[in-house]
Records
---
Amino acid sequence: MNENRDRLRIAVQKSGRLSDQSLDLLRRAGLVFRSSRDRLFLYGENMPVDVLLVRDDDIPGLLVEGSCELGIVGRNVLDEQRLAGADAPAPAELQALGFGSCRLAIAVPDNGLIKNVTDLAGLRIATSYPALLAEWLRKQSIDAEVVLLNGSVEIAPRLGKAHAICDLVSSGATLAANQLHELVTVMRSEAVLASSPRAQNAATAAQIERLCARIGGAQSGDG
Ligand code: PRP
Ligand code: ZN
Ligand code: MG
């Protein structure tokens, strides 16, 4: 652990699809929190474990730099970081958490011009997951241009920025609202517990193991 602290830190999405269920899981694992005034930091009252509420995309970086020992994040976010970071140390997936299931999918406008995966050749695809998309395109031998957008990817086709998008789909409501539909699934994802790639001292490693066991226990109690 960081030499300056003797408490574990777990990073959780501040506001988004995984936020509520992530905190629920930690509560069911037995953690009792006190919220800070800015509500970005939850102090663990009954265990030496604090929760940081952050943007989900920042979670892999916090784990790599060692600011947090654990994180709850979508597998897609972890895998994107691993691919983009090449040989750099990457956070490990400790366990799948059984919620937040979704898919990273390529979606196209409902106008019917793009019918097959092969129609994507030579087109622009907007995404917040450029490394995952590029790897998938390479495996499919499709030569398309990857356009990075960090938010509101679903409006890219209407803006003329891209012909298609590659984004997470859960209920499908976002696609439907933007006159888009799925063409193909790139990967399946769900919330996972991830750990920092930094070496931990024995006391911290034991603390992490205890917390993981509690989280595992809270999960198996799920209906
Ligand atoms: C994803 C995706 C869409 C939405 C799709 O964002 O970018 O905005 O979920 O869900 P739906 O199919 O149920 O409409 P997410 O909340 O995962 O993360 P973000 O805010 O970090 O983009
Ligand atoms: Zn995000
Ligand atoms: Mg989104």
---
Amino acid sequence: DCRPTAKARKRSRSPTGNPHLAFSASASLTEKPPAFQQPTQLISFSYTPERVLEFTDSALRYFVDPPRNAQLSHAYDRWERRPEGRARIDGLLCALSAARAKRHPALLAGFGVVAWRGVITRILTAPYEEREGWDLNVMYVDGVLYFEEHLSEARLREKNDIEPRHRIQTYFGYAFESYCTSDSPGATNVPQTPGDPPGWGGDVNTNVQWCSVVRTKLGDTRMVIGGEVDCVRGKYTGATDTFVELKTSLVIRGPHDEVKFEKKLLKFYMQSFLLGVPEILVGFRTPAGQVTTTQVFKTVEIPRLVRGKPHAWDPAVCLRWGGAFLDFLQAHVKGRPATDVWRVRFTPGTGVELRVLDAAEVKDVVAEEERVGFL
Ligand code: A3P
Ligand code: MG
Ligand code: MG
């Protein structure tokens, strides 16, 4: 039971300032970065079109080559859109207990961190993030850190009120997934609705997701990470080495675009690296949503593409920071009551600050959890 109590309030009155960790504290460039263990899958699950979590692979999709010049605005008016919410950890916890029932206990022992992949991506890419700050809720229960993204009400409204111009760009990404996947291995997509273009894999319903939960290790910290996987190449074996990540990006028209793309590659890289996804297919599109070319990137080869450039990023910096971040959290939350809820705030260019939530804030978090049926 991780239900917070009023104890949290007492702590927040303590006169000590909030602990913080600055990037400079983990910036030693000579120190060897902590090792990251090759992820292995513990369990997979699916969200149905009605957004019901089930322990099947019903939402698993298989890679197919997309048609030439795919038009990504197709069937925009038929998009079944899942409202933007807070990425709650409940589905992952549910998967973890299902894994406990199914898998050898040794596979599930000794974890230090449980989180969605998106959260870990944000943490590890923080040293290079120039614009977007973020907040996390953190709980520490029986030696395990649970991370969850925290979005303010205002930020949540912002995400749901995006302009149509931006919303269709989001849709382009999902439409690309439709063209690149089919529901059985080796099957070519046959249009279902009159007017569908060749290769269209079915209308987009963003409730539907196939997720993989993996175990891995950063330095000495064992982690359970869950994330959506877009599709697999060939047969599904349960190993991550057939996973494929699909992305869209604007066509590169000059050196300025190229720099932008190469900076973005850090996020593509980290997102895939964390789940052990070996391959990323990028569809380059026009502003109006026409795919002009596609390119396969091998995840492990991406860092080499940017090395030595002025806007280069280095995964070793990310891993060192990740290790320092976990040490920092563990040092501050160890020995504190499991009922405390912590907030980590990241400020671009600076680092992170940690504080314990007061009772009113905890109540808000709990109310949110209850609203989505977590507690
Ligand atoms: P892109 O391929 O165009 O990025 P993912 O790539 O992680 O599988 O996500 C699929 C699509 O969801 C993305 O397609 C993008 O349209 C949308 N998406 C993912 N993360 C997003 C975010 N943080 N904000 C807005 N849209 C996002
Ligand atoms: Mg995806
Ligand atoms: Mg994708």
